[in-house]
Design goal:
The structure holds 3 protein chains of 3 kinds. By secondary structure, chain A is α+β, with helices and mostly antiparallel strands. In chain A, 28% of the residues lie in helices and 18% in strands. Chain A has 3 domains: 2-119, Ubiquitin-like (UB roll) (Roll); 136-313, Alpha-Beta Plaits; 322-570, 3-Layer(aba) Sandwich (Rossmann fold). The chains are: A alpha+beta, B alpha+beta, C mainly alpha. Chains B and C meet through strand 1 and helix 2 of B and helix 1 and strand 7 of C.
């Protein structure tokens, strides 16, 4: 190759070839790569397969270059003397002159003919030195610290640090166990001053309450004197804190992270469908953290959604079917409860029967609900609307996670339309049988206990004790969102997948199985659907938007199947900042 | 490993007929039998033999005084000289335990406690002695020198529940252990 | 009429006494000896705790009497264990197999003479159950039925390890029955009859087959024929003893239940009392085997050294007690031989299967066959001319050499060991 270049002076040089595409040539650890102009060196190294140790750098935040952990050795071509042309070697590149001092990779961008060394004596001794400085005032209370096991300081100390401390003086004392907000605890001694939390609260959450006071080794992270760290996004600071300085009150001292199993799934608290990781040990959910998906939630999630999982292990969970006898609910088994139900529904006129389903159901469950309504011959099928305030970031006004899916599957623009007519029907007595699937209609849909008492049959499937269940003749224990599999379509029209992280308690059943079993009990047909994959197959055949899909093809980050025009505000903001060059990711 | 070809030894007639070897074997086994009966087996003295063979008759004769320094008996929790719990429930022992005998429920030390600086201690600490294999990995892994294998080896119980040592029992067997631990030091 | 009833009563008494009070107790006794003996061989103590369980009655201590009650405890344990029948077995045969193992061993006892005849109230009575003229043949015929038990156990368990164990056992027992049968022909030639009672009486009068050093109550050297006859007798003794080891599946020939290869062998799927029956059958076979060896080669109940007639004369009133003493002597010899069985088990390592088969078919079969002719030659020698004797001896030597030569060349060349 080198010969062809020298033999043919008209041959384009690598720099020209790259420039045509808006790229630059960079040599990383002796190998030439091409990167788009403006790429940060740390990103370039990552793409070349070298993950540089870092604390303060986060692709979704600005880069202050404060931790100095990502130091690399940089080299540039010599600047030609006036009147001379740059000299190109046989391979078409200029010679690289290495700088004697290292530079930080997170805040510098790549340039044409640049060289980066991510290894070597200088880089390694720099890292070792930085690690030693960071550890001088660190309390080294890893056995107590909750971050142990997912702590960057631990990881980098093992990979790049010294085995022992040479520090003989007294460590700087700083506040410990500081109550800076309702959900976050601060330990200043562990803080390494990376300022990620400060930048997050300022740039993403838009509530800049955190900051540094004092100077030098006495630098202390504090909250504004008159304020608390009480933003609905405060727990994200604990996620991005590379050490154990900020920890979650909810997860504090609950379980060591190395015992936890991670299951990727999605949040069901609003129409955004935030991607999450559920952390479980055994059958217990210990915490939920956001999972990066740049088309849905970036790297963040609201606290209100994150902490809404404690009901899963609560005492109020239904664990077996309950049947009401003489104003008292008694445990029973599935067969007899389904038989009772079928006996009442079989002879009933379709117009006297109504189904209230939920916007929190998966596509598969909604599809089976529609089939159930057809089987019963009823037109009275509605979902319960659930709205709240749009916070301008990730929490959507529509708090039902699958309204879009319901519209597609039920084939109506307003799946909530018939709720009022059903309510009137119950009140006037024209509706005698009511199936409530996954909803608490007394609390959320304006029904009254006395109205429900008029019904011949009220069946409710739900996860936990609730007022409607008190009125129900039959209560069927259902699965919580960490216990099911299925798919949902979020407000932007993206289909996403729920995965099972825990098992259902005792005799509870997956919702889709409950709906299938009710249908089978009424028709008396033989069971022929055993897997949720089969339900999705039927759904894909019936609704064109779902065609060519199946549960595994959806993947962990989902697939867009529809353009609704809805924009997630946080993403709009983030894209603008990226376009402005403030952030890289 | 390389293949080494070994030539079979050439056996003589006496060896082939095998009866001589048999007789030798009988002599050896008989010699052992007679020595055992006379209580003169090799090592009978040092092993506290009961007078036949080398076997010690256990409940009557015991070897407690001969337990070596490194003997690994029941795992226990220890307190320091001032009666403070050394364990901070980091759960490393629970993680390392090969038969999963240890179960810990961590808890927080209330802020009004004089030793609140440590923040964390076990709320529950159970070691299932029916599972424990006395490997000593918990002792080795403990960063706070809170768990030690003592020389107790007679761990008996009439039910499975009785064989689970809870926190109280573990501290009872463990007792006090002196030695420098820095975590209570306000200046460290 | 009363005669018949008395006769029947006597027979029943003998069966009950010899089978259930002599033979069956010998099984736990040999188990106890096995455990204690192997313990001392290995510098251990063995079972020494189980005795009279006084603590059950509220006392402070048990009386451990040397652990003699260990077999009782074992028996109670096996009796009370869950008798588990796997769902996949062939039930009828599965239930039949243990019985088929233990019953032949118990039946063979009926021809073993336990002592010299006793006389009560002037009534002479043999101390053996069935005084028949085909003693050893009866023993072989019945004891070889035990192979059905093991084979059926292996097959009906419907599981691979028992099956392999059963097949091995069948092959092994059938192979060794040949050398077993051939090896005692010199013995029978010598006695000239098959009645075991008479054989023992003959030994009591003329010296044991392996120890012919007295004659009609007087100690003295045997005549030339008897002395020479010790050569085929010793060869027959060795072959017979080793074959009995193989027949009873004892180490070093316990391949049917080789733990390292076959888990438990043919009784892998058995538990509780059914397993105990196999266990009993094996030990009972060992006791019967020992009894047969003692009877044929070592004088049976005879004390030897010309003392037998004196013992026979002992009596208390009308009751001749010599026979009772002889039973004691017989049992003592039996236990001594059982101890030898145990010593062998804890000394000799297990044979490989091909070695076992080679020993049976190539060595013992030919050796026993040649031994028959050797014995016949020695017996017939006084009536033959010296030329005939020489020709016979030369022929025998030639045949022996030929057999050894054939065995040698048919042996495959040893392969190099790979380490």
């Amino acid at each position: 190759m080198s010969e062809t270049i020298s033999a043919n002076p008209d041959q384009k040089l690598p720099k020209d070839l790259a420039a045509e595409k808006g790229m630059v040539n960079v040599q990383i650890d002796g190998t030439w790569h091409q990167f788009p102009k403006g790429t940060r060196m740390i990103e370039a190294a990552r793409q070349a397969g070298q993950i540089l140790p870092h604390y303060c750098y986060h692709p979704k935040l600005s880069s202050p270059g404060s931790c100095r952990m990502c130091l690399v050795q940089m080299g540039m071509p010599p600047r030609p003397a006036p009147g001379t042309d740059p000299a190109y070697g046989d391979d078409g590149y200029q010679q690289i002159n290495w700088m004697p001092r290292p530079v930080i990779a997170c805040a510098n961008t790549v340039a044409e003919n640049m060289g980066i060394r991510t290894t070597g004596d200088i880089v390694e001794s720099c890292r070792k030195g930085v690690m030693e400085f960071l550890l001088i005032n660190h309390p080294l209370d890893c056995p107590i610290c909750d971050q142990a096991g997912e702590c960057r300081l631990q990881e980098n100390s093992v990979s790049y640090g010294k085995g022992q401390s040479r520090f003989v003086d007294t460590k700087v004392k700083k506040p410990k166990n500081v109550d800076i907000g309702p959900r976050i605890r601060l330990d200043d001694e562990r803080c390494i001053m990376c300022s990620r939390c400060i930048r997050f609260m300022d740039e993403v959450a838009g509530d800049p309450v955190l900051g540094f006071t004092q100077r030098g080794t006495h630098t202390t992270l504090t909250v504004h004197p008159d304020r608390l760290l009480d933003s609905n996004y405060s727990l994200n600071t604990a996620d991005i804190c590379p050490v154990g300085a900020l920890t979650s009150n909810d997860f504090r001292f609950q379980m060591r992270v190395w015992f936890l199993k991670e299951t990727p799934t999605i949040d069901v608290n609003c129409g955004t469908g935030t991607n999450i990781t559920v952390w479980t040990r055994g059958n217990t959910v210990h915490r939920i953290t956001p999972r990066q998906n740049d088309d849905v939630n970036s790297c963040w999630m609201p606290d209100s959604h994150r902490l809404n999982f404690h009901f899963i292990d609560d005492k109020t969970r239904f664990t077996e079917p309950l049947v009401k006898e003489d104003a008292q609910h008694l445990p029973t088994d599935w067969k007899s409860s389904l038989d009772t139900l079928a006996a009442k529904l079989k002879g009933a006129d379709g117009s006297t029967t109504a189904i209230i389903a939920s916007g929190r159901m998966t596509n598969e469950e909604l599809f089976l609900t529609k089939q159930l309504a057809e089987t019963l011959g009823t037109q009275h099928l509605s979902l319960v609307p659930r709205t709240g305030e749009d916070d301008g970031m990730l929490v959507a006004a529509d708090r039902n996670p699958n309204t879009t899916g319901a519209k597609l599957i039920l084939g109506t623009e307003d799946p909530f339309a018939k709720l009022d007519s059903i309510r009137d029907g119950v009140r006037s007595g024209t509706i005698k049988n009511l199936l409530v699937l996954g909803e608490d209609i007394i609390t959320d849909a304006g029904f009254h206990f006395n109205d429900l008492a008029k019904l011949d049959l009220l069946v409710q499937s739900h996860t936990s004790a609730n007022p409607t269940a008190l009125a129900a003749n039959l209560v069927l224990p259902a699965a919580a969102f960490t216990e099911k599999r299925g798919s949902m379509v979020n407000l932007t029209g993206r289909i996403q997948r729920l995965n099972r992280a825990t098992e259902m308690p005792l005799d509870a059943r997956d919702d889709w199985e409950i709906i299938r079993d009710i249908t089978l009990a009424v028709t008396g047909a033989k069971k022929d659907t055993f897997l949720i994959e089969d339900v999705f197959k039927q759904l894909a055949a019936a609704v064109p938007e779902f065609a060519d899909l199946n549960l595994s093809r959806i993947g962990d980050t989902g697939k867009p199947i529809l353009d609704t025009g809805y924009q997630i505000p946080l993403l709009t903001n983030e894209r603008a900042r990226k376009a402005a060059g403030e952030i890289t990711g | 490993m390389a293949v080494v070809k070994v030539k079979r030894p050439k056996l003589g007639f006496g060896e082939k007929i095998y009866l001589g070897a048999l007789a030798k074997g009988f002599l050896i086994t008989l010699k052992h039998a007679l020595k055992s009966l006379a209580g003169k087996s090799i090592g009978a003295d040092s092993l506290k033999s009961s007078g036949m063979g080398v076997t010690m008759q256990f409940p009557e004769t015991r070897w407690d005084d001969q337990l070596p320094e490194y003997y690994r008996g029941a795992p226990t929790l220890v307190t320091d000289e001032q009666g403070r719990e050394r364990c901070v429930s980091c759960q490393l022992c629970e993680f390392i335990c090969p038969p999963k005998a240890i179960k810990i429920k961590p808890g927080e030390i209330p802020t009004d406690d004089p030793w609140a600086k440590v923040e964390k201690r076990p709320q529950e600490f159970d070691i299932d002695m029916t599972r424990c294999i006395y490997c000593g990995m918990c002792e080795e892994v403990c960063p706070e020198q809170a768990i030690y294998l003592r020389k107790d080896y007679l761990i008996t119980g009439l039910s499975r529940a009785a064989m689970v040592h809870d926190k109280k029992k573990l501290y009872e067997i463990g007792g006090v252990r002196t030695g420098l631990v820095n975590k209570w030091n306000e200046l460290k | 009429m009363t005669d018949i009833i008395i006769q029947l009563l006597i027979i029943v008494t003998k069966i009950v006494f010899f089978t259930f009070m002599v033979l069956l107790p010998l099984v736990p006794v040999s188990v106890y000896f096995e455990r204690r003996f192997c313990a001392v061989i290995q510098d251990r103590v063995g079972p020494n705790r189980v005795g009279i369980p006084l603590t059950l009655l509220g006392f402070k201590k048990d009386i451990p009497i040397l652990g003699l009650f260990q077999p009782v405890a074992d028996g109670i344990k096996l009796l009370l264990k869950e008798d588990f029948t796997p769902s996949y077995v062939r039930t009828t045969y599965y239930w039949l197999a243990p019985a088929l193992t233990v019953i032949p061993a118990l039946i063979t006892v009926c021809v073993i003479p336990f002592g010299s005849p006793i006389s009560i109230l002037g009534h002479q009575e043999q101390l053996l159950i069935a005084d028949i003229g085909v003693g050893p043949l009866f023993v072989f015929a019945v004891s070889s039925l035990a192979v059905y038990g093991i084979t059926l156990a292996g097959w009906s368990s419907n599981s691979k390890y028992p099956f392999i164990g059963g097949v091995r056992s069948t092959a092994q027992m059938i192979s060794y029955e040949i050398s077993l049968g051939l090896s005692i022909i010199p013995v029978l030639l010598y006695y000239g009859e098959l009645n075991l009672g008479h054989i023992v009486q003959h030994q009591a009068d003329h010296g044991w087959l392996l120890l012919p050093f007295w004659q009609d109550g007087k100690i003295g050297l045997p005549d030339a024929t008897t002395a020479l006859y010790m050569i085929p007798a010793v060869i027959a003794f060795i072959i017979f003893t080793v074959s009995i080891f193989a027949e009873t599946n004892r180490t070093p020939f316990d391949l049917p239940e080789c733990e390292t290869e076959l888990v438990g062998g043919y009784h892998t799927e058995y538990s509780s009392m059914k397993f105990a029956l196999f266990f009993m059958g094996e030990y009972a076979a060992m006791v019967i085997g020992s009894a047969l060896i003692v009877t044929l080669f070592l004088g049976g109940w005879s004390v030897g050294f010309g003392l037998d007639s004196w013992i026979n004369g002992l009596h208390i009133g009308d009751f001749q007690i010599g026979g009772i003493l002889h039973i004691g002597v017989f049992v003592a010899k039996l236990i001594a031989f059982i101890l030898f069985f145990i010593l062998v088990r804890w000394t000799v390592p297990r044979f490989r299967y091909d070695q076992l088969m080679k020993l049976g078919w190539v060595v013992f079969f030919e050796a026993a066959l040649i031994n028959v002719f050797l014995a016949a030659l020695i017996l017939a020698a006084p009536e033959l001319g010296s030329a005939a004797i020489a020709i016979g001896a030369v022929l025998l030597l030639a045949v022996t050499a030929a057999v050894i030569w054939v065995a040698k060349i048919s042996e495959p060349a040893p392969k190099a060991l790979r380490v």
